[in-house]
Each structure stands twice: as C-alpha cells, then as structure tokens.
Amino acid sequence: MTGTTTKADWIAVDWGTTNARAWAMGGANTVLAEALSDMGMARLDPSQYEAVLLDMIGDWLGDGTTPVIICGMAGARQGWIEAAYAAVPCPALSADLTPVPTDDARLQVSIIPGLKQDHPADVMRGEETQIAGFLSLNPRFDGVVCLPGTHTKWAHVSASEVVSFQTAMTGDVFAAIAGHTVLRHSTTTDGWDDDAFATALTEAQTRPETLAAHLFGIRAEGLLHGMGNETARARLSGLLIGIELAATKPYWLGRDVALIGAPRLCALYETALAAQGITAIRTKGDGMTRAGLCAARALTKPAKD
Amino acid sequence: MTGTTTKADWIAVDWGTTNARAWAMGGANTVLAEALSDMGMARLDPSQYEAVLLDMIGDWLGDGTTPVIICGMAGARQGWIEAAYAAVPCPALSADLTPVPTDDARLQVSIIPGLKQDHPADVMRGEETQIAGFLSLNPRFDGVVCLPGTHTKWAHVSASEVVSFQTAMTGDVFAAIAGHTVLRHSTTTDGWDDDAFATALTEAQTRPETLAAHLFGIRAEGLLHGMGNETARARLSGLLIGIELAATKPYWLGRDVALIGAPRLCALYETALAAQGITAIRTKGDGMTRAGLCAARALTKPAKD
What we know:
Number of helices of chain A: 9
Number of domains of chain A: 2
Radius of gyration of chain A: 21 Å
Structural class of chain A: alpha/beta
CATH architecture of the largest domain in chain A: 2-Layer Sandwich
Oligomer: homodimer
Strand order of the largest sheet of chain A: 3-2-1-4-7-6
Number of strands of chain A: 14
Helix content of chain A: 25-40%
CATH topology of the largest domain in chain A: Nucleotidyltransferase, domain 5
C-alpha cells in the first residue's frame, strides 16, 4: 500500500454541546488520527451534521462502508437524531445503538443512547459512555462513579449495571452566580484559597440552609473587610460543592468512589471527599470517553469482522 | 405669583443602580411633581451626577438654595460620593447625612448613608430609608422588616433601631439560574403554579441540602414527564425562597413580620410565611422610600425653617 492517508477501521466521535472530537481507529482500540471541530450541537441543525462529520473524517474513509460510533449531545432531541434514553437499572451501554441514515453510502453512523431514571427524574447523555469506558478498564468495580462538570453526575454502579444516578448542576450554578450576580465583582480571578474552600465545604455540609445567607456574605466581606477575590471564589466553590455533597451523601457514604473528569475540578471533589474520609480513585475524562466508544464498538461489531 | 412652574421646598431622590426617581416636595411631605431618569448608578461616572440631577429637577429650583436628599446607590463607593455605612445597632436614619459638593450654588445635596453589620458581614443601601419610612408610619413596631428583592433584606427592628440584619440574594440567584443555566429552557413563562411553589417551599425548608439535587430535577422532569414551564418556574422560586426561609428562621420565628416591596414578590413571601404560621403585614416599597426621605428631611431640617 502506498500513500500517507490514514484509513480507519472505524471512527469514534464524542459530539458535545460546544465541540466535536473524532478519532480514526485501527483495530479495536488503536488511535490512528484525531480531528476536532467547534461545530457542537448548539450550533447545528439536524441537516448539517453529515457535512460537518465528513469535514472532520472524510479523509479517513476507504472504499467500503466505515462504522462511525457517536456519543454525546448529537443524540439529544435537539441534536442530529434522538437516541432514546435507556432506563436504569441497566448496563451503561447496550448493543442497541440508534442508527442514523446518511446520504453518503460510505458512512454507517450510529449514536449511543443516554440513560434516564424515572423517579427521581434524571437524565445523562455522554457520561454513560465514560462510565462504560471506566468499567471496561475496571470490570469488577462496585461503587459510585462521580463525573464532575457543568452537570455533575453521581452514578451507583453494581454488577456492571448503573443502578441509579443523581445530577447536581453545581458547575452550571457556579458559573451563573460568578458571572451573572453581584458576586461577579468578587470572583474574577485565577487565584484560589485552600483554607476558604475547606471552611466553606464544612459550613455548607453542616448547615446547608445557610447557603442562602452565606452567598451575599461573600460580597459583604469584600466590601467591609477586604476579602480578596481568590478567597471569595474558593468560598463560593466550597459552599456549592459542600451542599452538593450533603445532597448526594446517600451515594458516596461508605462506598468506593471513582472520579472521572478534568483534573483541576476532580481535585476539588477529591479534597472534599477526603474530608469525609473517602479516598477517591481519579481518572481522566477524555480517556474514559474513548474507552467507552471502544467498548461500544466491541459490543456492536458483527462477529464475522 | 404667576407661571405654572412648580418650585420645591425641598427635593427627595431615590437613586438606584438602574434608575433614579425624584419628587418635588412642598412642606414636610406633599408631592408637587415627580421625575424619572434611566441614568442609574451603573451608567454614571461621579462627574456626571450633577448634570443628570439638574436635568431631572432644574425646573423645580427657585432663587435660593434647595435641599436635595438622596438615598440609594448614588452613595455607594462607585456612585456619586461614598456615604459611609452606619454600623448596627443604630437607628435606620441619623441626622448625619453625607454632604455632596456641587458647582450649582442653588443645590444643597446630601446622601443618606447605608447600614453595615460587621459580623456576620452585611450591608444595605437604600433599604434603610424604606425601613425608616415604615417606622415613621409605625413608630412602635417591634419585629422584623423583610424587603424582598434582588437582594432580600431581613432586619430585626426594636426600640426604633435596626438591631441586626441578614441579606439573601435570592432574586439575584433566581435570575441567574433562570437566565444563564440549562434551566433557561424550562423557566421561560409568565405563568405560575401555586401547588408547585408550595411543595418546593416545603421540600427546601425541610431538607435544604436537597436543593442541589432538585435543581436539575426540574430540567429532567420537563424532558421525561413533560413538566410545564409554569410549574418549573414556580418550583425554582419555591426552592430558593424555601432555603432562604430556612436560613432566616432566627429572624422571623415568633416575631411580627412586615413586608416592604413589589406586590407580586411580597405575595410570594406572604404565602411562604403563612405556611409557617406567620401573618405578615404588607406595604408598598415606593411609598416607604418617600416616607423615609421625608423622615430624613424632618431629622435634618434646621430649626429656623
């Protein structure tokens, strides 16, 4: 064979709200090439997905059909095509991916469904693939997988199934308060204050109701006593993660906890859990996504391949 | 005397973050004319206030000097001139207004100072004037004055003094969450759901920590079970006012409560307090502001006038 163009056995895609990331895969789990796009779900109509996908991965296609497995918000109701949620308790992944019709015959696209829980009502889309990736690497894990982020997910995993889960929109609320309330004057900084974070964590866990009183206190401490923005930002984060830990105690108490996500954010949750006597396992989020897409490929690959 | 132009004995001004409102006053408390401006503190440099004020009230000035008494954010550090906070416990108003130098000799401007509390750190600016107005009309009141708004204030008033106070930035947080998180998809409506409000109030007061879990539940209930936006909005409001009542219980429990503010918002607090067995007194916010400015005029008027 000649030429330098990579041809993929199959293609893995993580298609989120703001970005898409694709990998040309060789065999089960070898990455041959990678592509990025800023055309996330929020910027696309259903009719535009195929062209954006071909822009990213067109060079990797050979003469036959190439399987493309997608996870994330491309499967939302407002995405490419809705991949209906699977209801917990169930495995994080099943072989029932949602097929996506395409004009280009070289593409064989399918989307991984999200998970739903009827009561209390909850949904996830994308995180199920990270959980599946983690379980593919840790098949005997029994405990709680926590995925910190804009909408932090706490999933109880047992016997290779997601038993139940709970979302706390802590990151979303943090950004809204730090960006769009009077606290925007107090929290603009890249700095941090470990002690303020730890104190706020304890306060919010011990007396969660005082969150309502402590928020404006951050502003007033700055006005009256010169509290710095690094302290204010750490305190806001500590209050919000603290009340989240109080709300999710039935999840993490007395269980093994695995953290999947961005290192800096996971470190905050690790610190917060350590204060409660929980030693969490930490793994990187993007690696788990790809591992999950590989697990989906293994589940759905025809036996004759 | 001829001519139709109103001349004021003195002028009352409520100068807030986004708007300013002025009244030409005759004698102690008769309103002769009114003027509005959208040039709030947020849009002004200190050097611009005098011109904006003259635009509003220039026609009301006679040949001599006219006292102008201002309350609100014009006295903030980023306002016209800083009117240093008085420290509680203290009367809502003292005779020590902060004088403002002006170029126009017809003006004799002064600003009412806000109140501060050192521990727990808290500040108010503008609400002290409403409290003073309420107390001028209810001089024997002993209890709690609650001023619902962007930053709701709870002030313990006894023997004509503000003993202590507590701010909950519930309105600010509600607007940030309803406008800048994933819940913006769920809460856009003018509708309302009384039952959802009442249920959420109870949940947040009984188990405040579950706020962290219940927020994303609003989104998930919409996706999975078709919860309407009017229910979602009322539920978000109920959760946030519920945790506020849990945090401020030391204020309202067993005390008389007076509500001052916009009728629709006060009605929500009235409902919430009634569920706790508290019958609140309700008054309109703008009337209290003007009554407070009149009280400041009476306190500071030279005896010879």
